[in-house]
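**User:** Hello, beginner here. Are you able to go through the protein record under this note? It all follows right here:
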Amino acid sequence: MSTTGDVSRSLLAHRVPDLGALELLLAVARHGSLGRAARELGITQPAASSRIRSMERQLGVTLLDRSPRGSRLTDAGALVTDWARRIVEAAEAFDAGAQALRARRDSRLRVAASMTIAEYLLPGWLIALRQERPGTAVSLLAGNSAAVAERLLRDEADLGFVEGLAVPPGLDGTVIGHDRLVVVAAPGHPWARRRAALPPAELAGTSLVLRERGSGTRQVLDSALAEYGGPAEPLLELASTTAVKAAAVSGAGPAVLSELAVTEELASRRLVRVPLEGVPLHRALRAVWPRGPRPTGPARDLLTLTRRHAG
């Protein structure tokens, strides 16, 4: 049901000329000619004449005296022109303010990323973004996948990156790449000398060096070993991929880590990959954002870059 305010606004919209018509009237006042005003605004003279007549009918007054020598404002037209100037100036101020807000939005980007992505993928993406948007200031909040979701839901980040089994509740997202987890151990560990693949039951029954609950790595491992009772009580539970890797290299115990994180250690034999029997440890890498419209501005550009560079 319409309110009194709705009706008043509707009537006002019918009584007040649009900005285009007011700008045309101001141009006629400046040039003293309907033709020159039309050229300034990039419209034809017949179109300009039709717009002025339409405005006169809408207001119920004559705005211009037309003659072969040009167009002159009537007394009523001069008064309407003064009012029109204030409206157009207010509209220009409104537009300038809106542009400033857009510029402020487009000059910063708040990114929240899970630890693996933050450590091993995001730096390259941000270097590429800087080449495309050198004026954009980027702030990075790193944490596990659950923390990334919380930051987005509290409007503390514009775009997030997680690795796990699904898009966190309350968010929308898209897959930008894939990753897999691998079992690794120091060269002196008995698993490093195995010839046969490791049975999943043995992996589940062994205390490992693991990421904390809430991380994408832990989510995938917990799900993969669910039918075997889940992972045993961790030997160590650490909050970063780098810390887990360092503990494994030191010989503290086997670990399950992203293949992205252990490439150098496997190549240098500081860690050995332990083959695993029949357990899928693949996971999707996702860009996520609060449920609703897709990201715009620098967040959209970074999302495009990740699709180009991830995988």
The first helix runs from residue 4 to 15. The first strand starts at residue 64 and ends at 67. The chain is about 45% helix and 20% strand.
